[in-house]
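Many introductory courses stop at the sequence. We go one step further.
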Amino acid sequence: MSESPLVAHFCLQLRAAGIGGYIKEHKFHTKRKWRFDLAWIDDRLAVEIEGGVWTRGRHTRPSGFINDCEKYNTAVIDGWRILRVHAGSIGDGTAWQMVKEALS
């Protein structure tokens, strides 16, 4: 699977802000094929980049939304903190600032 332009842009922002140590496409569940877009494993922090918000992407359709609920709830029960970000929060810089705050 190729990296989305939104993920690539966000990773550039993180690098510019001096935030590293993440793993892309981290498979966090042993039985399901669930992955986090970015994960800081030692901190149990994950970032999910929600694309297609205004274009009726997978995350906003009913089945995608329901599947995401199951994925996120399972991760939280397993001790993960999840930051859900979107193009707007990446574009205005609030996404990387939230990551920085969560890691501090």
